[in-house]
Hints:
By secondary structure, the protein is mainly alpha-helical. It is 70% helix and 4% strand.
Amino acid sequence: MTMGIVKEMTGLSERQIRYYEEKKLIFPDRSPSGTRKYSFLDIRSLIEISEKIRMGLHTDEIREQLATHRIETKEKKRLKGQLNDYYLHN
């Protein structure tokens, strides 16, 4: 998705979105030409980030929470894959 769509969907300014990227809170993909390509996961993260900012959390705290969530999500996917493999072969 383009910056315009992201701004519309999140209610955030381009400056805010770039700031959150600069603070390593989001990691949009890039096209071969370097243009940012935002996903629905980025949108969800931006909405969550802006809510946490409004609640008074610092960007360092938010980064830590998001990193923990990403690790947990990856671990869940890995375990699910292992369970699927187990049931397919037993």
